[in-house]
Amino acid sequence: MGNTNPIVQEASRFVFDLFRDKLSPDLVYHNFQHTLETVEAAEKIASHYPELTEDQKEVLSLAAWFHDTGYIYTYK
Predict the structure, then answer these.
(1) Overall pTM surpassing 0.85 (yes/no)
(2) Could you read off the pLDDT of 34-48 as tens digits, one per residue?
(3) How far is residue 38's CA from residue 35's CA, in Å, rounded to a whole number?
């Protein structure tokens, strides 16, 4: 999708670095690639809802970027 929103771009870099530096290599599913695919799917779905504001789409993208970051602390 290539979101050009600077806040969303910074979130993607942050999550990439976080997973690279702190995510257990034993986690083969909840990783950056899975998160990227989730973000792309969320943005694609959002594009079918013209009533969503840009702010709402931003919140959705940010939620998708951060949805699995807790796995750096625990995986149960």
Answers:
(1) yes
(2) 999 999 999 999 999
(3) 5
